[in-house]
Design brief:
It is built from no helices and 11 strands. The protein has 117 residues and is mainly β. The strands form 2 sheets. Strands 2, 4, 5, 6, 9, 10 and 11 form a 7-stranded mixed sheet that branches. A 4-stranded antiparallel sheet has the order 1-3-8-7, with no helix packed on it. A hairpin with a 4-residue loop joins strand 7 and strand 8.
Length: 117
């Protein structure tokens, strides 16, 4: 019943922008911290950005100043605004929901982001 559906990926030139969305259903959205992760070819999956239930955010050093995570609890949706994209940002981006005060988590299916000229 839990479903996390990412959207907004695609191909963009270096320096461009994309906004990813992750729509959640089947969970009490406000009770979950939400995160964006990415996995590039041949690399391990890594945390990109995270936003807690209270709105506190964390970012990977590689994206600080360029990416912004936000959430709209009324829409059960988390966003990742990606600006000044670089080729090294190319990856499959995954949404993850983590139940606060728990080890319970859920993954989305991922959306491809390709930054290339």
């Amino acid at each position: 019943q839990v479903q996390l559906v990412e959207s907004g990926g695609g191909m963009v030139q270096p320096g461009g922008s994309l906004r990813l969305s992750c729509a959640a259903s089947g969970i009490p959205f406000g009770s979950y911290a939400m995160g964006w992760y990415r996995q590039a070819p041949g690399k391990e999956r890594e945390l990109v950005a995270r936003i807690g239930g209270s709105g506190h955010t964390n970012y990977a050093d590689s994206v600080k100043g360029r990416f912004t995570i936000s959430r709209d609890n009324a829409k059960n949706t988390v966003y990742l605004q990606m600006n000044s994209l670089k080729p090294e940002d190319t990856a499959v981006y995954y949404c993850r929901a983590d139940l606060i005060y728990s080890t319970t988590y859920h993954w989305g299916q991922g959306t491809q982001v390709t930054v290339s000229s």
